[in-house]
Structures are given as C-alpha cells and as structure tokens.
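Ticket #4471: structure export looks truncated?
Reporter: QA, pipeline team
Priority: medium

Steps to reproduce: submit the single chain below to the structure queue and open the exported record.
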Amino acid sequence: MSERDDLERRLAALPGDAWDPEAPPPLDLPRALAAREDADDRAPERRRRWPRAVVLRPGVALACAALLLVLGGGAGALLVGDGDGDATPSGRAVDLAALGPAPRGAHATATIAGGTVTLDVRGLRRSGAEDYYEVWALRTPTRLVSLGSFRVGADGHAHLSMPLTVALRRFPVLDVSIEPADGDPAHSTVSVLRSRPVRS
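Actual output as written to the record:
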C-alpha cells in the first residue's frame, strides 16, 4: 500500500465527530458589555495583544496534517509533470546541426533541465535589421510551438534560456528558423538548425 493510499485510509477511518468543531461557550452578554465599556475607559493604556492560539482536537489535527501531505504530493506531481502524465526529460543535452542556408560549421546545444531549455548557438550569420532567429518544438511542419526568439551578434554566438512549455514526447524535434520581422508568427519554412527527435 502506498503512503497516499494509507493516508486516505486513515482519513476515511476517522469518526464523524472528529470533523465537528467544539461548541463555543455561552455568551454572557451583560458581562461582555461591561468589559467593553471598561476597556473603552482605559483606551489610552491598551496594548496590542497577539491573537489567542487556535487549539485543534487531536483527531482534527491529524486529519489536517494528512490532507496537507496528500495535497502537497498532488501539487508536486503537477509541477514536475507536463500536464499529460509525462515527465519532461531533464539534465539532457541535445545537439542541433546546421541545415539549409546555415553557414558550414554552425551548430547549437540545447540543455533541458527543470522545465527550461538553455540554448548555446555558435556559427550562425549575424542577425540583420529585418530578421531574427526563432526556436521551435515541432512534430510535423504543421504541428509546432514557438519557444522563443533571439538575435545573433557579429561573433555568430547566442546564449539564451526559455521555458519548455510543451512535452517533448508530443513535440520531439528542436528547430531554429530565420524569420523576417514582418509580424507573421508562423514558421518561415527556412530552418537553419535542427535536432534529431528527442527520446523521452
């Protein structure tokens, strides 16, 4: 039995009255009003007091602790996963080779870790005033997602980090294209770097 199953079993076994709050003491209205008037008379001498601690019954405290553990585990799974039950490959280096009009020897290395892609590019042509480079995760030429864009200086080098917003199981190829600055968000169809499919 897993720890989560054991916690759920223990929660289900708690008696029904463990969830019921204790009844408050009866209100003595005359005494409460007298105390308030007395406090108003001494207002300049009042000091800030810390709120009284809330005391939980042992059964309720145990149930709350167990529930927090279960919820925390679920939240952790959502943060680590990609939302489709897949864990994103982490701590992995992926090579991108020159393609199409890229200069000979151009290449890049993408490091995937903690939901982030860090790209180190070398040997690409310097970006012009009317173009830039864009990074994609793709499955087919029509099924692709942009991860970010960048520009390359005179040394042909660029280094950038981008959030990995998709599962590489679904979009396993990393691609770099050169894009005209024309406001069109679609892939230009001119790729300069591309990886082999990343195995998850």
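Status: closed, not a bug. The export was complete when the record was re-opened. Leaving a note from the reviewer for reference: The CA atoms of residues 49 and 171 lie 58 Å apart.
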